[in-house]
Amino acid sequence: MRTILKRLTDNPLMMVFAVVVIAFSGIFAATHMPVDLFPNLDIPVVNIITHYPGASPEEMELLISRPVEDVMRGLQGVKRVSSTSALGVSEVTVEFTWGTTVRDARQLVQAGLSRLNGLLPQGVVPRMENIGTTLQEVTGYVVVLPSMARILSASYPLQTGLRG
């Protein structure tokens, strides 16, 4: 490496030639680089929403979230599975490895959901929802009634900042 640098500094014509080659290489790369107004940033994430009216969060966890999570963990290319259970609602999020298309991820999840027949309570039908963009974390909403604000603030300490 030292000999190359020494030859470049000793020979000014060679230095100019190296600078011109590097500059033209950069210009060539910049002009041939694909630029999209809306680049494809689809994240292979599929959410499974299940409603079971009247079930407590504990029942939702035991009867719905855990069986769905167990089946989804067995799918090919799954990176992470997480769930949230609330009163009458279960949300299981399945994240696939990068490179898996959203279409393939949905097909894998649909195949996994078909294996759940008989494992879930009668009348419960899980539904798929995919967000597929980097805005996934922005789509969670919480509705709090003024009468519940005191209960929630005592149960859950407020968190500030962004999740990442």
Please explain how this structure is put together.
Strand 2 (78-86) and strand 3 (89-96) form a beta hairpin. By secondary structure, this protein is α+β, with helices and mostly antiparallel strands. The two termini are 42 Å apart. The chain folds into 2 domains: 2-31, no CATH class; 45-138, Multidrug efflux transporter AcrB pore domain (Alpha-Beta Plaits, 2-Layer Sandwich), CATH 3.30.70.1430. The radius of gyration is 26 Å and the shape is elongated. The protein is 42% helix and 17% strand. A 4-stranded antiparallel sheet has the order 2-3-1-4, covered by helices on one side. The protein has helices at residues 2-10, 12-31, 57-73, 102-114, 146-155; strands at residues 45-51, 78-86, 89-96, 127-130. The chain contains 5 helices and 4 strands; from the N terminus they run H-H-E-H-E-E-H-E-H.
List the helices and strands and how they pair.
Blueprint: H1 2-10, H2 12-31, E1 45-51, H3 57-73, E2 78-86, E3 89-96, H4 102-114, E4 127-130, H5 146-155
Antiparallel strand pairs: 1-3, 1-4, 2-3
Helix pairs in contact: 1-2
Largest sheet entry = 4 strands, antiparallel
Helix content: 40-55%
Query: Which regions have little confidence, pLDDT < 50, spanning 5+ residues?
Result: 152-164
Shape: elongated
The total tally of domains equals 2
How far the N terminus sits from the C terminus, by CA atoms, comes to 42 Å
